[in-house]
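In this supplementary section we document a worked example of the pipeline. Step one takes a protein sequence of length 73 as its only input; no multiple sequence alignment statistics are reported here. Step two produces a three-dimensional model, which step three serialises into structure tokens for compact storage. The input and output of this example are shown verbatim.
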Amino acid sequence: MAISKNTKPCSETISFAPPAMPTWVDKVNDDSGSDIRKNMDKTTGIKYLIKGVSDAYKDNTNLATIDFRIKNN
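The serialised model returned by step three reads:
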């Protein structure tokens, strides 16, 4: 990568926020666990387990930050 000699030094920050609940969680969740044969491709209560872990981090609005500077030598 080449940086033009006319480029002034600058800095930038990239931040990563927590993602939303994935759509697959609702698709694979079984709330009742009553018809096991019909729901062999689902997991009873998985939505609540994943949501519980997610809720533990809900106050963290920023998961990571990367600071970098670009300058000419």
